[in-house]
């Protein structure tokens, strides 16, 4: 090996060691800068994806669109009325709770956001959304979507990249572990996804259930709120199968959210988590800690 | 110098185009790793010091965009978990893979592209396998499902398929700036890095 090669190799190793020793703050600054530069391309890529997906779908005529708009306006007005009624019920409920000296329930405060980049990583199931620091999003904020009558858990914010962007670690990733419970029982376990992001929609594993759990196919699984990161009663999925082991039961769970179809998601702001923690600290009862159903969405 | 600037431009362009490369669900969520492929193609065509310099640049840019940082974990009740691959790991990976692929550089310089193309595919997959092993080492419990091998194979295939076009592009760029990329281009007795022709 020539002298020049050796000099370059020494310089390379030196710089490599220096870079790997960067503080998390410095790494964050570098990544924010990179994302700011790349954001126009990410948005363009997302728009191309949407256009390609739209090619296969049926185009509506102006008359059909007008009819659809009228339907949606009607639906919006109905929901507005429902929210007003729920507000009144919440007030009444809180008054009664105060009378009984219980802690007041807080409405779930949400931020609507759009997915701007899917699966940016090779080994992690993640996505990038268009809401960040200025929208109140912080690390570990839960991310949800409506699934039928329930709020379905999508994952949690793993990094806030900038004023209007954040990375969401999806529930289908092995590193997104959630305390979960089987509906209709007191059984609790830990749900986790799959290592390596080898499939877009892998089944989840629900581990550490007791041997007497009695999980059955079709049984819904919800977040328990015990781990304090996620609010309770978010839909995770339903049991496909369960296997009783030597010391515990492990169940396979089909996710309730269709991760391939995610376009708009909602980030739960930290205020809710704080109030949930306070509830737990105050009397340790999971019943009192459950959040109200009312949703306040910030656009 | 002009050729080196072209290579830098190619790496930045690859990073931008990577945003537009889709993930193929049918291929076990694999994709064409354009930055990796461009870097390995360049690594087969340039001397060792230039390869190391470009490994530093491209690895840094890749980590700046795709590095997964710290996160907490509900199962550990919010205890902070360190990122599994440190920032800068891709620089190490590119340096290592670049050094391996330099072994087939003499063949490329003689105008033989078959083995370099194969090695570009193999090295891309090898890089991914190393990343997976580091993740598994951190998490404990080495799981090697069949899907993993398929994902690596498909990624290697995508890289190997695109690399002849990139090699051709490099050759054209070298001709354009009169850089001696092949043995028969070089009039001097010794090359830049001192290897006898």
Give a description of the structure.
The complex is a heterodimer of chains A (about 300) and B (about 200). By secondary structure, chain A is an alpha+beta fold. Helix content of chain A is about 35%, strand content about 30%. Chain A has five helices and 13 strands. In chain A, the strands form two sheets. Chain A has a six-stranded antiparallel β-barrel. A six-stranded antiparallel beta barrel of chain A has the order 6-7-8-11-10-9. Chain A is globular, with a radius of gyration of 23 Å. Chain A starts with a helix and ends with a strand. By secondary structure, chain B is an all-alpha fold. A two-stranded antiparallel ribbon of chain B has the order 1-2. Chain B starts with a helix and ends in a 21-residue tail after the last helix. The model of chain B has no long low-confidence stretch (mean pLDDT about 85).
Helix-strand string of chain B: HHHEEHHHH
Q: Which percent band covers the strand fraction of chain A?
A: 25-35%
Uncertain stretches of chain B: none
Q: Strand order within the widest sheet of chain B?
A: 1-2
Count of DSSP-assigned helices of chain B? 7
Give the secondary structure arrangement, pairings included.
The complex is a heterodimer of chains A (299) and B (197).
Chain A: H1 3-20, H2 24-55, H3 62-99, E1 108-118, E2 126-129, E3 142-147, E4 150-162, E5 165-170, E6 178-182, E7 188-192, E8 204-209, E9 220-223, E10 235-244, E11 249-255, E12 264-268, H4 270-283, H5 286-289, E13 295-298
Chain B: H1 2-18, H2 34-43, H3 48-66, E1 71-72, E2 80-81, H4 89-101, H5 105-109, H6 114-139, H7 146-176
